[in-house]
C-alpha cells in the first residue's frame, strides 16, 4: 500500500472471532479496522452496531448467523458485505432469513462446504468463494523428542459427533500393544458447556466414555489438558486425531490435524464427508483399526519423520496466513 493511500474502513462483526482474530493485526496494515463483538448468535448492542454501520466501507461478518442477517438488512448503498460461513450455520434458520441480494460474497472454508453453501442457499455461484482456513505456522513450537510418537491428542471433544469414544478405542488398542501410549484431551469438558450439560443424550455419551476409560484401565493413559495454547503444547504430541462422525453436515475443515502438522506431528483423520478435499489421502482412514496400525508403524522415529513430511508441506504451502490475507484483500478491494 502506498504511504499516502487512504485505508479503507473494515468492520468485523461476529460473536466468536477465534478463527479470524489472529489475522486482524496483519489486516491493520491495509485497513482501518473496527470490531462489532456480538454476545450471541443474535445478541448485540444495536446502537453500537448502527454506529459501526455508519462508519464502515467494508463489512465482514464472521459466521452466517444473526450478525449476517442484521447487516444484510441494514447495509447501505456503496458498502461491501462479505459473510464467512463455517459449519453450524447450515443447521440453523439464519440461512433462510438473510437478504442474499445485499451480500456481495459468501466465503466457504472447504470444497465440500462450498457446494453445501450453494445447495442450501441457492445463491449464484458467482457470489460464492472458497478461501480455506489458515495457520500461523511460524508460531508453533517444535520438538525432536522421539517419545512424542507415544503421545496422541484430540482437540475438542464436544459435542458427541467429535467422536471422543472412537479416540478412546484407538488408545485402548494401542495400550494393549504398548503401555507408553497416552491420549491428551484438549478443550472444554461436557460440564463446562450449558447446552451439553442440559442435553441428556449428550451427557449419556460422555458417561459412556468415562465408563469405557474405567473398564479398560485407561485412567493413567488419559490426560485432560483443558484449554491451553496448542501452538506451544503440541510440540510433544505425535498424532492429532480427527475422528468425527461422517454426516451430511460433517466437519467444515477441522483445523486440529493441521495444528498437529504445524507442530511437527501427524494429523490422522477418519473418512468424514469432504475430508479428501482438505488433507492428503495418506492420513485418511476408514476405521479405528487402520489408525492404530498406522500409529504402531510410526514407533520408529525415522519412519515418523518421513511420514509427517507431506502433511507439513501441505500446511506450509496451502494454509498459510499469508495466502489467506491475500485472498481477503482481493475480495475486499
Quick recap:
The chain is an alpha/beta fold and 333 residues long. The protein is built from 13 helices and 12 strands.
CATH topology of the largest domain: Rossmann fold
Strand order of the largest sheet: 2-1-3-4-5-6
Output the CATH class name of the largest domain. Answer: Alpha Beta
Helix fraction, binned, reads 25-40%
What does the average pLDDT come to?
A: 95
The rough form would be described as: globular
Low-confidence runs = none
Summarize the biggest pleated sheet. 6 strands, parallel
Number of helices: 13
- The total tally of domains equals 2
Structure description:
- This is Glycosyl transferases group 1.
- The protein is of the alpha/beta class and 333 residues long.
- The chain folds into 2 domains: 8-131, Rossmann fold; 137-318, Rossmann fold.
- It contains 13 helices and 12 strands.
- It has helices spanning 24-27, 46-55, 66-74, 94-97, 111-121, 164-177, 194-197, 200-215, 230-233, 256-262, 288-296, 301-318, 321-332, and strands spanning 8-14, 31-37, 58-62, 80-84, 105-108, 128-130, 151-155, 182-186, 222-226, 239-242, 266-270, 284-285.
- The strands form 2 sheets. A 6-stranded parallel sheet has the order 2-1-3-4-5-6.
- Helix 1 (24-27) links the parallel strand 1 (8-14) and strand 2 (31-37).
- Helix 6 (164-177) crosses helix 11.
- The longest helix has 18 residues, at 301-318.
- The radius of gyration is 21 Å and the shape is globular.
Amino acid at each position: 500500500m502506498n504511504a499516502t493511500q487512504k485505508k479503507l474502513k473494515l468492520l468485523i462483526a461476529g460473536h466468536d472471532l477465534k478463527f479470524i482474530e489472529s489475522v486482524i493485526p496483519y489486516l491493520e496494515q491495509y485497513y482501518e479496522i473496527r470490531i462489532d463483538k456480538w454476545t450471541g448468535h443474535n445478541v448485540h448492542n444495536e446502537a453500537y452496531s448502527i454506529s459501526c454501520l455508519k462508519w464502515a466501507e467494508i463489512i465482514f461478518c464472521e459466521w452466517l448467523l444473526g450478525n449476517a442477517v442484521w447487516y444484510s438488512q441494514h447495509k447501505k448503498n456503496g458498502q461491501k458485505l462479505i459473510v464467512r460461513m463455517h459449519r453450524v450455520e447450515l443447521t440453523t434458520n439464519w440461512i433462510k432469513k438473510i437478504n442474499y441480494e445485499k451480500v456481495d460474497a459468501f466465503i466457504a472454508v472447504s470444497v465440500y462446504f462450498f457446494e453445501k453453501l450453494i445447495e442450501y442457499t441457492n445463491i449464484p455461484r458467482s457470489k460464492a468463494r472458497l478461501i480455506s482456513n489458515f495457520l500461523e505456522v511460524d508460531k508453533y513450537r517444535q520438538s525432536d523428542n522421539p517419545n512424542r510418537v507415544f503421545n496422541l491428542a484430540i482437540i475438542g471433544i464436544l459435542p458427541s459427533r467429535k467422536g471422543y469414544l472412537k479416540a478412546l478405542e484407538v488408545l485402548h488398542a494401542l495400550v494393549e500393544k504398548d503401555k507408553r501410549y497416552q491420549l491428551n484431551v484438549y478443550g472444554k469438558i461436557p460440564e463446562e458447556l450449558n447446552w451439553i450439560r442440559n442435553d441428556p443424550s449428550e451427557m449419556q455419551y460422555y458417561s459412556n466414555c468415562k465408563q469405557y476409560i474405567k473398564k479398560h484401565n485407561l485412567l493413567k493413559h488419559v490426560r485432560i489438558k483443558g484449554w491451553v495454547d496448542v501452538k506451544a503444547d503440541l510440540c510433544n504430541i505425535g498424532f492429532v486425531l480427527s475422528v468425527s462422525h461422517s454426516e451430511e453436515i460433517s466437519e467444515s475443515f477441522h483445523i486440529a490435524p493441521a495444528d498437529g502438522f504445524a507442530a511437527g506431528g501427524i494429523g490422522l483423520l477418519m473418512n468424514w464427508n469432504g475430508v479428501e478435499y482438505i488433507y492428503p489421502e495418506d492420513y485418511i482412514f476408514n476405521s479405528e483399526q487402520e489408525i492404530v496400525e498406522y500409529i504402531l508403524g510410526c514407533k520408529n522415529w525415522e519412519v515418523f519423520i518421513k511420514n509427517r513430511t507431506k502433511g507439513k508441506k501441505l500446511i506450509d504451502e496451502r494454509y498459510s496466513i499469508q495466502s489467506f490475507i491475500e485472498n481477503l484483500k482481493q475480495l475486499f478491494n
